[in-house]
Specification:
The protein has 5 helices and no strands. It is mostly helical. It comes from Ascodesmis nigricans. InterPro entries: TMEM205-like, Xanthocillin_Biosynth-Assoc.
């Protein structure tokens, strides 16, 4: 236990741990947890779950890249992150933090607002947004707006994942493999 507890006192340990949690949570939410929940839950239950998960998820996806950057070996201040050559090494993480903050503070609330508008329209129409058959013109417009918002959010999330994977390649390039 001595070696383990002493290694937790170094920024390098926290760097690896924060990067691992970042990449693992992005991969899990994007490709495993969200997919399984969509298939297993009713639409209202899935919607409620996602509304509760996304603020926490995007918060972590904003803060974990910053923690990873601040514990990057060779970087001693946040100002150094923006200087050459550090910005080349940490650019992917900055991209992840910015894209996640955009989802957290802008796109997420936009999407949630559209969902609330759909709930009001469902009451007016006497029909759920996902029910079979023709929909009111207002609901068609809301569904289209939601599809756009969801697509933008998914795209921005994938940009962040690509930034995180890109940083993983930077880390791998700096490692020395000894067979």
């Amino acid at each position: 236990m001595g070696a383990t507890s002493s290694s937790l006192k170094t920024p390098a340990s926290w760097h690896v741990l924060s990067y691992g949690v970042l990449l693992g949570s992005q991969f899990y939410q994007s490709f495993i947890g969200g997919t399984i929940a969509f298939k297993a839950l009713s639409r209202p239950a899935f919607s409620q779950l996602q509304q509760n998960i996304f603020p926490v998820y995007f918060g972590l996806q904003t803060l974990l890249p910053i923690a990873t950057i601040l514990t990057t070996p060779g970087i001693h201040s946040f100002a150094e992150v923006f200087q050459y050559p550090s910005r080349l090494r940490t650019g992917g993480l900055l991209l992840t933090a910015v894209s996640s903050a955009l989802n957290w503070f802008v796109i997420g609330p936009w999407t949630t607002g559209i969902m609330r508008e759909r709930k009001v329209q469902e009451t007016k129409d006497g029909k759920k947004y996902y029910d079979e058959g023709p929909k009111s013109e207002a609901m068609e417009k809301l569904n289209k707006r939601f599809g756009i918002a969801h697509g933008v959010s998914s795209l921005v999330n994938m940009v962040g994942l690509i930034g995180t994977v890109g940083y993983g390649l930077v880390i791998a390039d700096r490692m020395v493999y000894r067979p």
